[in-house]
Design brief:
pyridoxal phosphate (chains A, B); six-stranded mixed β-sheet; Rossmann fold; 2 domains; homodimer; Thr_synthase-like (chains A, B); 14 strands; 449 residues
Chain lengths: 449, 449
Amino acid sequence: MPIPSPPQGAMRGKMRGLLDMTSTLPATSGIDTTLSPARALVCRACSARYPLAAQHACYECFGPLEVDYDTAALAAVTREQIEAGPKNLWRYAALLPAGQDPATRVTLNPGLTPLVAAPHLAAELGITAPLWVKDDSANPTHSFKDRVVSVALTAARALGFTRFACASTGNLANSVAAHAARAGAPSVVFIPGDLEQGKVVTTAVYGGELVAIDGSYDDVNRLCGELVETDEFEDTAFVNVNVRPYYAEGSKTLGYEVAEQLGWRIPAQVVIPMASGELLTKIDRAFSELVEIGLVEAPAGGWKVFGAQSAGCNPIATALHSESDTITPVKPTGIAKSLNIGDPAAGLYALEAVRRTGGWMEYAADDEIRAGIRLLARTTGVFAETAGGVTVAVLRKLVESGRLEPTAETVVFNTGEGLKTIDAVAAQVGPTHRIKPSLRAARDAGLLG
Amino acid sequence: MPIPSPPQGAMRGKMRGLLDMTSTLPATSGIDTTLSPARALVCRACSARYPLAAQHACYECFGPLEVDYDTAALAAVTREQIEAGPKNLWRYAALLPAGQDPATRVTLNPGLTPLVAAPHLAAELGITAPLWVKDDSANPTHSFKDRVVSVALTAARALGFTRFACASTGNLANSVAAHAARAGAPSVVFIPGDLEQGKVVTTAVYGGELVAIDGSYDDVNRLCGELVETDEFEDTAFVNVNVRPYYAEGSKTLGYEVAEQLGWRIPAQVVIPMASGELLTKIDRAFSELVEIGLVEAPAGGWKVFGAQSAGCNPIATALHSESDTITPVKPTGIAKSLNIGDPAAGLYALEAVRRTGGWMEYAADDEIRAGIRLLARTTGVFAETAGGVTVAVLRKLVESGRLEPTAETVVFNTGEGLKTIDAVAAQVGPTHRIKPSLRAARDAGLLG
């Protein structure tokens, strides 16, 4: 597998800033390695190793860090142990960097969301193999972000942080604010000023600080990268900045669950929405890890990973289509705001996973996204947010173009809840009839044949 | 226990109409009594017995019917059997009227929702014993209605119905439309014309028929009572009309789950929102049943049942406060639309349960409801719809008035999701700061101390 190049230019400068910050944090890691299988942070680009602290970029090459584990500890985990665990993501605690002791968790106990059989959707798309929707809108704040936040904040607490923060396109904001409320901890959440009302209110209602920024998500993210260096934010864990390596691990539980829910099998094809690209890489990684540690058998033909973006923010898919190894940042537009990251931090790794597994990427325009939301709802009873509409629209395109094999088992990931982006379809759907409360009115409206 | 009087006047006329209708339905019950513990429908008022068909009122006295069980079959159910079951309400299938065979279920697999410890809420209210929030917003369409709909539609399919319908204040509409979409069945849902947009869109998006009625919920309900008698609706199960006895049983799973989640114990006090009053009576009934069949020990001091209404629709609480045995219907007003049933079908039974157990009822004004939503969110990370705000506001009042014992374990029920009634708090919460994306702007806004 080719090692992606370290980030260049502006990205490199941004990371250097974050590196300086780490020196102001508690010197000693609080991750309890007698319980946690995590052993180090390791650079995804150059493999340099660091202690389990609040650091997310490599001192050597500025590459992103990820958590490295004691493989013997992971290999000792059994299916029975997992199945006997709690009915949430903490059943996989023995595979996560923190939270083995339930008393240390900062969590809404997300996970173990439904894997929904979608035969009617399959039939409409001409898919003849089993098709499943992994419905992460069933999490406590109704997006997959509850997974990453639970792992990030649990690690953050172990590392000594007392205030919780994030840069967010909305779902992460909801989740961080709700987690902080449950834990009785202060939070400060940064969002672009133009978010959907559903995501603003659902953050603000939890009572923490909520800072709307006149700018894009990338502007918000840049500001958080600066704030995290200040003395005033020394006590503050930004889930997707200074504790990002732990945060990213939470996404792996989506892959673990799909495999467990399929009876400890990996599906032949997965279709995953991409914002930073991290979710896609972590689900792929979860599958690899399950095979490596012997919890599932490697499927005969491997698995193919497909990525979904919106036409308004498609830098990763564009790189794939143009056979490039460089992600060119874009200024995002369009209704799929939760995917609107124009400078995707894990884009190169998502490209690598899709190329390595023989998958593909596509992107969907706003009207296709709306149609995707409605198609999914009508055929499965799952009402997805715009990101889910993107994924279903891309699924359709992948079938039509022949990139996705209609005779192979497929799982599509719905990462969020339609109620949060209700404006996307509000103009398109509504009552089919409007009548007075009488039998005569019902008859006149054609309701009685 | 006194037997409530059968309904009088207009209610009696309405029921007679429904009785006529039953003759047009399939004559043979399809409930498989070799699997189901249900044996008959029995009148709650006069104890007359009927076969397991689509009938909901007594031919003798017009009283409402409920499902009667083979008590020996119920008593054979063990904790181990339940605990080994699926991670949803079907773990209690052996206690329900239908759905024992998984292939017969019409369901989104709701249930087993979180029982959330609420120490910060308890502290704010001066409650010193454990306080829990049973958070039914975690169900697939984010309200407790998924429970009753799953049981009703599974029974309806067994009884030969092929189209699914309801009269709804919103949550039920969402659930019936989503269940029908998952099952690939047609649906027709009737709602008052002034519902929250969140509930209209979340119903319409599933693609069934959605009929908005110029009138109140009670008008909608009356029209459905007429439609169900027509030839054109012979194939149609109205979950809360002609299959209501089965529907109501679904609510009992909330009581079963609370007991199981507490380690097979019944809490000393429960606070439950009331619309028709049915949910309250069924949770109380679930507790009684668990004791009767030996799955839990009767708690030393029994349990007290408390009911919560809004000031805009408080006919049951008003009857209690005025020591009356008659529910005087009201014309509902106020923001708690999911509770706005002015002529509550189970009101007398709710009164009976509250009086028998030594509980109480209160009601909350719109501003108190909004404050209740925010208090719950801020202290627990649970964002409730207005009905949950009602319940928390009433919890506060019950503590303040001394009706609820602050040293006794208490469970409050949140039956729905804040995202569906976002307008209730949208004007009150929002960003605490709005800045440009720069450190200087953050400093000027006071974010750096």
